[in-house]
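Checked the freezer inventory, then went back to the computational side. Two predictions to log before the end of the day. The first one is the construct we discussed on Monday; recording sequence and tokens without edits.
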Amino acid sequence: MIKKVLLIGIGLILGLTLVSVVGWTLVRPHVFHGTVIQSPNPAPDFSLTDSTGQTIRLSDFKGKMVLLYFGYTFCPDVCPSTLYEIAGAMKKLGSQADQVQVMMISVDPERDTPAKLGEFVTHFDPRFLGAVGTPDEIAQVATYYGIFYQKHEGTQATGYLIDHTATVMVVDKTGHLKLVFPFGTPAGDIADDLAYMLR
């Protein structure tokens, strides 16, 4: 009898512990890997050119989450590694990725033609879009989003290189800037935050 009571008691304790763990998992707040932005104003709209030569605007994607990245096709390491992680995040999102648009804006309008940029970004994921513009247009959009970029001398093999801000910005479905991922954020962390925002 005592043994039976003890077994029932242990069972109840284990059951309550399991309920507590599951309950905490369901109600605990999400801890973001990126930096959360609480901007009351919509993200600045812009008008650039996509890889097919058509006009592309941020506002074209209202109702979708947009990941904005500023980079260039001649970038030796930072841009390829960033796009690789974003592509990995898209794979991890599965069907949720259909609600996300990734766009890379070139900070090298002298060399990045629409076709070259399109080929570069779709190498990582065929759904990725590239956007180019005149030097003045790119400078204006970069200013909107606080992006720094500056040309500097490279090698004879590379030609000039460009130092640039390497963050990834997330614009939510309502058109507001909500999250910024620093350079080096792994695919799993990106996917974790995006999946939470897409719930």
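The second is the one RB wanted added to the comparison set:
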Amino acid sequence: MASAKFKKFKLKVNLGFLGIEGDWEVDEIQRNAAWEIYVELVTRISVVELKPEEGLLREALSSLYSLFGTTREILKKYGPSISSPQNSDDTTLGHIAIAVLNKSLRPILSKWHPLLADYENKRSDDISITAHERQWQHANELRAEINKVREQLTDYANVLADVAGVSRLH
């Protein structure tokens, strides 16, 4: 089913791992998919700074990991039309979404999930999960990496808000 054109705009974004510049024709399907991904991003730790004495690193990593499942479901729901460019030089929501998963989220998760899990398995019953995690020698390093990814995801959220045609809620 062909979708009606919604909006054509100039796109210039640098997510650190992905720089895109050019025209992007956004139709209603891409707009709706962008909105759904945007809602997932801005309602998680992904765009909120994780301060030193706040939250758990495990919860932050799990929240970031859950973006894989929700993004996959959204991409499957809207189908190949959100990944099929009008012109060979054009970008699509599908291209950007997959790049974010594979180039921004996958590296941090593949490195830190197993390292944190190994450390978590060493916790004795007489210490709380929070206290144990805060004693981890790599806790500050992981928090710094989470915040670096947060900056990239905030840029991504900005693009999604623009594509969805909504004000930035984050």
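For RB: The chain has a mean pLDDT of 87. The longest helix spans residues 93-120. Let me know if you want it refolded.
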